[in-house]
Amino acid sequence: MKHKLMLGRYIEGYSLLHRLDPRSKLAGMFLFIAAVFLIDSYITLSIGFAFTIMIMILSKIPLTYYARAVKPLLLLIAFITLFHIFFHSEGARLLKAGVLTVYSGGLEKGIVAAGRMTLFISFAAVLSFTTQPDRIAGALSSFLRPLQKLGLPVDRLALMLSLSLRFVPTIFEEAERIWKAQVSRGFSLAGQPFKEKARRIIALLVPVTVSAFRRAESLADAMEARSYRLGAPRTQYRQMSWQQIDTLFLLSFALPLYFISLLN
Amino acid sequence: MPYFPNSDNKTAAIQLNNISLTRGKQAVLKQLTLEIPAGQWVALAGCNGSGKSSLARLINGLLQAEQGEIVIHGKRLHSEHFFDIRSQIGYLFASPDDQFFGLTVRDDIAFGLENLALARELIEQRIEHYAQLLGLIPLLDRHPATLSGGQKQRAALAAVLAMEPSILILDEATSMLDSSFRDDFLTLLTQLNREQQLTIITISHDIKELAAADRLIMLHDGTVLADGKPDVLLKRQHLLNTCRLEAPYALQLCRELKLHGIDIGESLDEQEVLSKLWALLSSKSLTATRSSR
Amino acid sequence: MGITFEQVSYSYKELALKHQLALDHINLSVKSSQFITIVGAPGSGKSTLLQHLNGLLRADHGTIHLLDMVVSPSPAKLPKQLSQRVGLVFQYAEQQLFKQTVWEDLLYGPLNFEVSKAEAESAALAAAEFMGLDEAVLAKSPYELSSGQIRKAAIAAVLAAKPEIIVLDEPTASLDAASRGELMGLLHRQCSEQQRTVIVVTHALEDVLPYTNQIIALHKGSVLFSGAPHELMLRIDVLEAAGLQMPAAYHFYFSLEQQLGLDLSKLQYYPSAPQLAAAIKAALDGLN
Predict the structure, then answer these.
(1) How many Cβ atoms are within 10 Å of B214's Cβ, its own excluded?
(2) Once rounded to an integer, what is the mean pLDDT over residues A142-149?
(3) Cis bond leading into C75, ω under 30°?
(4) Integer Cα distance of B233 and B241 in angstroms
(5) Domain locations along chain C
(6) Per residue in A93-106, pLDDT tens?
């Protein structure tokens, strides 16, 4: 099951993007999101695309991989596009099909909406393809660290995040195994009313949950046995080092931001 | 009867005095008193529910006894001292997955060392050294999902040894793995015990593992059933039965041969029994050739 | 009848990356009502093979014959009742239990396969009795049982559906020695008393040797060996490829065979301690 999703996978490589500090990539993503929010026309959309395609090329990962990342969400994108197309009536009338009318304004809005979603997903893909999950978590933790003074339990959150990254795939594998075991015992949801389906899913949820809790207890023991103490000072083996290239990377986001807001 | 093989000057690594532990209404350990000298390799056996795993967990503070005291290297075990004492005790669990925290082998070995707040250069050194010892260098950057159970367990052992404990507890560490892993494991433990005088406690159902230790303690129903040399205790069938262990083939063969009037003594060791049988055969064939002349 | 695999191939289709050939033109043949053991190193294809036996996985190519059923690659339909007639017990089977009491979990399987409540109850009772689970155990929650008992309960839950073929993946994993022997004995009785075909995947050869008729060794998705246990013991290369060690019984036998003029066929091909002792005695008497 864990292998069915393209988005969220790390793909090994040595491109520029791979070598950047995860903090610059994460910060860049926030800037990018801001830029994408400002996109509202064909022109601004093309600027966004041009910038994104450049980044994707720099990642040295085939564009087909990015296409596959977007694929699962095509239905959603199509839905949003059609929604915009049929519910906006600015601009020239282009087409009339029975009750529905398509206007050029609606078409633009629809395409722009589709484009924005695609850009979001593509950039998220760039981040996840080129940055190992624990590095993203590390970057996030370091951004949140100042909030520790305000009482936010950053250490706890960071621990939760890194353990989730390590164990969610393992738990999924176990869930798959339990599902197969139950199917082998005749478990089936086919042709059942919704209420019955919900009742039957307990055959999966109970064992997976019990096992997850047992695992959590074992992990807590094992961590304590390895001298882990929450909140105690500990060394960071993996270090992030901010280079000049990271500053340059971050500054490069100023370009699309500037032009898009200009033409907004 | 307590057994002190090294009763000369060596300080006790672990002392349990009058320990009682209950879980709910069940008494898990009943007024247990035990002393383990430094550098001793102790095997703990017993059926499920005998209290052996609880005993191990008491030693590093994962469980707390209702009564009695535990002394490690002269320090009384108290929640204030948990960190200090735990840093001297390496604990290996049975499940390879549930003690692998890092996203790579390297990160996992680093985990414990980070907890000890060691300097980065030292962490780097220890990772290299212990990965080398456990044959993990080619696997250092692998994700646990790509590793077999045996490889993960080796990584866990490296991670625990890297913290350079003076006491090593192995809680059924090989039970989920196959026999080839076990043999390599035993060789390594023997090396660590001899060369570094590491105090070792292994909990196991495997006769070979139990036989490799200096001392065997068999628990039953929360008390010590037997305490002595593995070579002696593992030949006692009633003890094997109580602990749900099976006599090794070599021993079974010795006993069956005795039923046929052939007495080669009793041994747990395959090679020893074979040697005795060969010796018996050569003496017989000598007799045969002599009488045929 | 029995079970036959003809040129069966299967690869895992993971998104992107290469296709991994897990089963590579497997050909094998097994008679019914036998106790069969499958061995192989991790990654050899054992668990993939098992999942083809009850339709969890569909072969890409090749045909599988199970008793009177035929399983062909999709879009051909799976034979009806395949998962009832072939019971598959996964490793650490106790993880699948989820009902409040063991008894309810035993009923789960048969009821899923649309058997009447009365039949389900009698089947569950028979399975519990066979595995040595008494009334007190049946009334308990699975989480209150010992490791040996809970393993037996999980296996009983699959037996309750009355499969004709039972497949078990490492059924003795993590059990103590006495429990392992007990469980294997029970599985053998399923074979000898109830004529069921029993297929066990294991790396603990000592556990199965007193009972198994046939051992199949897999290596990198192909069948490396299929034959009697004593024949396997002569193939050190196969033992190594499968990550197995020669069991003590055969080690002793082969070490003494020549000098004593021992004959494995006289020992029913398995040199158990009593039998080997008797053979040694006979040979020594012969020398006098």
Answers:
(1) 17
(2) 88
(3) yes
(4) 12
(5) 3-96+165-245, 247-288
(6) 777 777 777 777 78
Tens digit of each residue's pLDDT (9 = 90 or more) over B52-91: 999 999 998 999 999 999 999 888 888 888 888 888 999 9
Mutate to test the interface with B, among A155, A177, A215, A235 (most CBs of B within 10 A): A235
Task: Show which subunits contact C, needing at least 3 CB pairs below 8 angstroms.
Answer: A, B
Cβ–Cβ below 8 Å for B99 and A219: yes
CA distance A129 to A13: 9
- Chain B CB contacts of C249 under 8 Å are 249
Q: Which of chain B's residues have a Cβ under 8 Å away from the Cβ of A173?
A: 145
Which of A141-155, B181-195, C10-24 is least confident? Answer: C10-24
Asked if CATH classification 3.40.50.300 holds for the domain at B1-85+208-246, the reply, yes or no, is yes
Instruction: Report how far residue B177's alpha carbon sits from residue B154's, in angstroms, rounded to the nearest whole number.
Output: 11
Q: Searching chain A, which residue's CA lies closest to the CA of residue B56?
A: A225
CA distance B244 to chain C (A): 5
Query: Cα separation of A170 and A176, whole Å?
Result: 10
User: What's the alpha-carbon Rg for chain C, to the nearest Å?
Assistant: 21
What is d(CA B98, CA B81) in angstroms, rounded to the nearest whole number? 25
Q: What is the CATH number of domain C3-96+165-245?
A: 3.40.50.300
Q: pLDDT per residue over B115-160, tens digit each?
A: 999 999 999 999 999 999 999 999 999 989 889 888 999 999 999 9
For residue A170, which residues of chain B lie inside 8 Å, CB to CB? 97, 144-145
Provide the ipTM: 0.91
Kindly list the domain boundaries of chain A, sorted by start residue.
Answer: 2-131+241-263, 146-225
> Rounded CA gap, A122 and A136, in Å?
16
- Residues 6 or more apart whose CB falls under 8 angstroms from that of A85 comprise A102, A106, A107, A109, A110
CB pairs under 8 A between A and C: 60
What lies within 8 Å, CB to CB, of C19 at 6+ separation is C11, C12, C13
Selecting from B83, B110, B160 the residue whose C-beta is nearest the C-beta of A237 gives: B110
Parse chain B into domains and list their residue ranges.
1-85+208-246, 248-293
Does B169 contact chain C (CB < 8 Å)? Answer: no
**Contact across the interface for B176 and C174, Cβ inside 8 Å:** yes
Q: List CB contacts (< 8 A) between C176 and chain B.
A: 47-48, 205, 244-245
Helix (H, G, I), strand (E, B) or coil at B274: helix
Question: Token pair of B285, please?
Answer: 């064939």
Q: How far is CA A217 from the centre of its chain?
A: 29
Chain A positions in Cβ-Cβ contact with residue C15 (cut-off 8 Å): 3-6, 68
Encode pLDDT of B154-197 as tens digits.
999 999 999 999 999 999 999 888 777 888 889 999 999 999 88
